[in-house]
From TrEMBL:
This is FecR domain-containing protein. The lineage of its organism: Bacteria, Pseudomonadati, Bacteroidota, Sphingobacteriia, Sphingobacteriales. PANTHER family: PERIPLASMIC SIGNAL SENSOR AND SIGMA FACTOR ACTIVATOR FECR-RELATED (PTHR30273), PROTEIN FECR (PTHR30273:SF2). Residues 196-291 form the FecR protein domain. It comes from the Bacteria. It holds the Pfam family FecR_C. The chain crosses the membrane at residues 92-114. Coiled coil: none annotated. Keywords: Membrane, Transmembrane, Transmembrane helix. Residues 334-400 form the Protein FecR C-terminal domain.
């Protein structure tokens, strides 16, 4: 194997597995661009693509070559975000597991969403979208409210100690975390000193509680918590969505309250989604064990299970929940498996801080795929455009059209 071919295989594998550095991605794109007039180089690119180190083949050889040729062609064009060649037929030709469908689009730096659609017009052309405006992605933004009512905008606050609550210092770190440190856990029954952190639409934040538990807060979410845990339990309350890595302390169970439901743990990793505009509240367990209960029901979750609570208070346990989908937001991704356009757009609305409306008939399709949350709104919607969904962006409003 030549040194260049070995390098290409490394670059493709790093890119595919999302471990490539920015310099490595640039290097890969430059090689693809340079292949325009180099037959030998083009052959090496094809060979490296064919030998991606994956657990099982994702595509049959013919379709794999079609896809790579499309990637190469798109990378030779300027302004190519939406110039994606559709499949030659109307069948899904990329499968991962039972329902997943991904197209690796190298020039864009993301996984393209492909729909497992109920209906599609094979004659419908996919045209380049020229949004009137665009919307930038969200970022680390949050408002901290102390027990005395004082508020601190964390996105504007300088790094270092922001305030004190008793013996606890509230510190903003360089990497954008809020850390409650050096306070002593209480054992008496005194009233806890409560703080609240709220992320706006288009915001997210991470904090470390006084006991060492870590919390990631998604957009449009609120976490109420004590500056120092007192008594025999550790209790917090959320609206919206949060991911927890709870510090183990068998003597002090950790409890999360949301929508008249309590999740109790000793030490574990789990995600809790409790938005008011979602039909169900979902608790997904990644590690350890949790007990979920409300007035009507209680159950113990095992890793990989998800509890889905509807508005009537009924809980359904899903044994083979897709944990990656549930926590992708924490890792900077939109990720969907068989999701409706409405579900996708609710997430987009919270992250981009936009309003969403629909013109005509709402597309009856399901989508599977993933893309970075760091892209502009038009780029996320461009992936849906490839799957036959039209859109319009005007100021802070997105319209989904027939």
């Amino acid at each position: 194997m030549s040194a260049l071919n070995a390098r290409l295989r490394y670059l493709f594998n790093s890119y595919y597995n999302q471990t490539a550095t920015e310099q490595e991605r640039d290097e890969l794109f430059q090689i693809i661009h340079a292949s325009a007039d180099d037959t030998e180089l083009t052959g090496l690119i094809h060979e490296a693509w064919n030998n991606l180190e994956i657990n099982e083949p994702l595509f049959d050889p013919a379709k794999s070559m079609d896809m790579l040729n499309s990637i190469i062609e798109n990378n030779k064009q300027e302004d190519n975000i939406y110039k994606i060649k559709p499949p030659d037929n109307n069948k899904l030709w990329i499968k991962l597991g039972a329902a997943a469908a991904f197209l690796l689009f190298v020039g864009f730096g993301a996984y393209v969403l492909v729909n497992t659609e109920k209906e599609r017009d094979p004659k419908k052309n996919i045209t380049k979208v020229e949004p009137v405006h665009d919307v930038l992605p969200g970022g680390n933004r949050a408002l901290l409210t102390l027990a005395n009512g004082k508020t601190i905008y964390l996105d504007d606050a300088k790094n270092g100690v922001l305030a004190k609550e008793g013996s606890t210092r509230i510190n903003k770190t360089r990497d954008g975390q809020l850390v409650y440190e050096d306070g002593q856990n209480g054992t008496d029954n005194s009233v806890p000193v409560m703080n609240t952190i709220t992320t706006p639409r288009g915001g997210q934040y991470q904090l470390v509680l006084n006991d060492g538990s870590k919390v990631w807060l998604n957009s449009a979410s609120t976490l109420s918590f004590p500056a120092v845990f007192t008594g025999n339990t550790r209790e917090v309350e959320i609206t919206g969505e949060a991911y927890f890595e709870v510090a183990k302390n068998p003597a002090k169970p950790f409890r999360v309250k949301a929508h008249r439901t309590v999740v109790e743990v000793l030490g574990t990793h789990f995600n809790m989604m409790a938005y008011n505009d979602e039909a169900v509240m979902k608790t997904t367990l990644l590690e350890g064990a949790v007990k979920i209960s409300n007035n009507n029901y209680s159950s113990i979750l095992k890793p990989g299970q998800q509890a889905s609570l509807n508005q009537s208070g009924q809980i359904r346990i899903i044994d083979d929940a897709d944990a990656e989908d549930s926590v992708a937001w924490k890792d900077g991704l939109f990720q969907f498996t068989d999701a409706s356009i409405q579900s996708i757009m609710r997430q987009a609305a919270r992250w981009y801080d936009v309003e969403v409306s629909y013109e005509g008939q709402i597309p009856v399709r399901e989508f599977t795929g993933r893309i970075s949350r760091n892209v502009k709104a038009s780029e996320l919607l461009g992936m849906l455009k490839y799957a036959g969904v039209n859109f319009r962006i005007e100021d802070k409003h997105i319209t989904i059209m027939e």
